[in-house]
Amino acid sequence: LGASYSCYSPPGFGTGKITVVDEFDFRVPSATVMLSQPGQLGTGYIINEGLTNISGEYSYTHEPALEVILDISVTEGTRSGEGIIRIKPDETSTETVTIY
């Protein structure tokens, strides 16, 4: 009898990459990005918060390896914008949010 091998490997974490731009399509560094999961009565569970880098990008890796849909809320000074991102295991999802 030979050894048996499985091709299954557990899924890896999913990554969401958010790019923040202004109304002129210029990338916005140092914008605050807040990711939250929609909840009951409009109060979502906050998953993650951080700042965009010099290229106006913010990256988030979702653990555990489950599919998740997150609300994106971006603020920079008096400007703000919103969006939605769907993150799947083993994939990098990208979303652009425009702030006004």
Short key terms for the protein model shown above:
7 strands; three-stranded mixed beta sheet; four-stranded antiparallel beta sheet; single chain; elongated; mainly beta; 100 residues
Structure, briefly:
The chain is 0% helix and 52% strand. The protein is built from no helices and seven strands.
SSE layout:
Elements: E1 14-21, E2 32-37, E3 45-51, E4 57-62, E5 68-76, E6 79-87, E7 92-98
Describe this structure in words.
0% of the residues lie in helices and 52% in strands. It is built from no helices and seven strands. A four-stranded antiparallel sheet has the order 3-2-5-6, with no helix packed on it. It is elongated, with a radius of gyration of 17 Å. The termini are far apart. The mean pLDDT is 91.
Mean pLDDT: 91
Gyration radius, in Å: 17 Å
- Structural class label: mainly beta
Which band does the percent of strand residues land in? over 45%
Strand order of the largest sheet: 3-2-5-6
Distance between the termini: 67 Å
Number of helices: 0
Low-confidence stretches: none
Q: What's the helix-strand series? A: EEEEEEE
